[in-house]
Amino acid sequence: MAEAHAQRLDALRINRSVHPRRKLARRWPLWAGLGVLLLLAVAAGTMGRAPSVRVAEVREARPGEQQTELTAAGYVSSRRHSVIAAQVAGRLVEVAVDEGDAVKKGQVLARLDDRDARVVAARAQAELLAAQQQLIAARATATRARSDLGRAELLAKADVITRANLEEAQALAHASTAEEQAASAQFVAAQRAAEAAALQLSHTVVRAPFSGTVVRKLADEGAVLAPAALEQENIGGIVELVDLGALEVEAEVSEEQLPRIELGQPALVFLDAYPDQAFRATVRSVRPAIDRSKATADVNVAFEEIPPGVLPDMGSRVAFLKEELPQDALEKKDAALRVPAAAVVQNGGQSVVWVVQDGRVKRQPVQVARKVGDEVALAQGPEPGTQVVVAPEGNLRPGRKVKVRTEEG
Questions:
Q1: Phi-psi region for residue 385, left (φ > 0), alpha (ψ -120 to 50) or beta?
Q2: Which positions make up the signal peptide (predicted)?
Q3: Tens digit of pLDDT for each residue in 118-142?
Q4: Dihedral through CA 389, CA 390, CA 391, CA 397, nearest 10?
Q5: What are phi and psi of 203, to 5 degrees?
Q6: Considering only CA atoms, which of 111, 108, 199, 179 is closest in space to residue 139?
Q7: What pLDDT score does 62 carry?
Q8: Do 93 and 238 fall into the same domain?
Q9: 17 in any annotated domain
């Protein structure tokens, strides 16, 4: 009985003679299997993730591309464009125009509360009238004193009056003349004060400095306006006025391309709002300053005829031409399509592009006609508007799902 009990106790004892490393060695296949499974899961996730690709659209050639020296992006602007503000502080009591209204030079745009200005002007006029009366009285006194002096000098020569009487007459004449001069100076000062008060009163009426169109209304009746400030733009603005008859395109040209631009050089303007139309223009001026941050200069291009419907800040592209474009060349397009040069790659000795359709890519052969700047002209390829991958990576496969981002990001 005791022997059986001892055997059971021996069975419960832990055998410490077995080394722990041998146990770990027996378990390494389990850890290795788990590692392989983890690697397979990561690889599967990576394989299934849609890569991000940059795309651009196939486009038709624009008129005059054969004669184009260079192109630049820009915006429509006006040579006469101003935010109209009052020259004095005050409360706005009337805005006489609305957005879209055409106004003439000198037309009333707005009125400020003029009660204080009228009081000041009335007081200045009263002071002017008082100064005028004082001048009249001083002139009369001075005239009489000079006449008395003349008689005193004659009487003194005849020894009718004493020397003291003559000196008294002379002193009175000199004093009267000084009073006349002082009254005259006070009258001139009162005149200038009245003119200043009248000018301040006139500033409560805001008029158009040039003929144009109201494109924005910046304040309404009841607003308290600060006077126009030189340090800060648009402080106290009431309306924004633009001369739509002086529209042009302000394009940004890189400084290394500036030598290719000349005053009077012919150009074509393509507006984003009217992509199928080309408008003739000429280089009007080149701003003599470089933007350090962008290394560009502004080139102003004037329309030969301002097209209807064009508005300030419309996006555009300007094609600077090598020579004047004939009218028939302006009306017809180069049949070739255009894609970024980086979109065309070689595959098995054939030029192809990767077309994105329904979120997946497919390979399409193209026939390259020639290289044009950073683009290539295609004699045969996808239809205009088709999205193609720019600078495709080698991991693309037909039918693979992709995430699209445009040229703008």
A1: left
A2: none
A3: 999 999 999 999 999 999 999 999 9
A4: 0
A5: -70, -15
A6: 179
A7: 74
A8: yes
A9: no
C-alpha span between 244 and 282 (Å, rounded): 18
> How many angstroms separate the CA atoms of 409 and 400, rounded?
21
> Do 234 and 284 belong together in one domain?
no
Quote the domain boundaries for residue 387: 52-61+335-405
Average pLDDT, the chain: 84
End-to-end Cα distance, the chain: 88
DSSP assignment letter at 304: S
Against a cut of 0.85, is the pTM above it?
no
Q: Give yes or no: residues 72 and 122 share one domain.
A: no
Are 407 and 65 in contact by the 8 Å Cβ rule? The answer is no
Is 90 exceeded by the pLDDT of residue 199? Answer: yes
What is d(CA 130, CA 189) in angstroms, rounded to the nearest whole number? 12
Residues 259 and 138 grouped into a single domain:
no
Which tokens in the block code for residue 345?
Answer: 């790659």
Q: What is the pLDDT of residues 230-278, one digit of tens each?
A: 445 545 789 999 999 999 999 999 999 899 899 999 999 999 898 778 8
Q: What is the phi/psi pair of residue 238, to 5°?
A: -110, -50
- From 207, 211, 273, select the one nearest 242 (Cα to Cα): 211
C-beta of residue 53 within 8 angstroms of C-beta of residue 356? yes
- Cβ neighbours for 235, distance < 8 A, ≥ 6 positions apart: 85, 226, 228, 229
Taking the C-alpha atoms of 204, 210, 212 and 218 in order, what is their torsion angle to the nearest 10 degrees?
Answer: -30
Q: What is the pLDDT of residues 2-39, one digit of tens each?
A: 555 555 555 555 555 545 555 545 555 565 666 656 66
CA distance 299 to 303: 13
Choose one of 200, 222, 255: the last residue of a domain: 200
- Which of 141, 134, 209 shows the shortest CA–CA distance to 175? 141
In the chain, helix, strand, coil percent, each to 5?
35, 35, 30
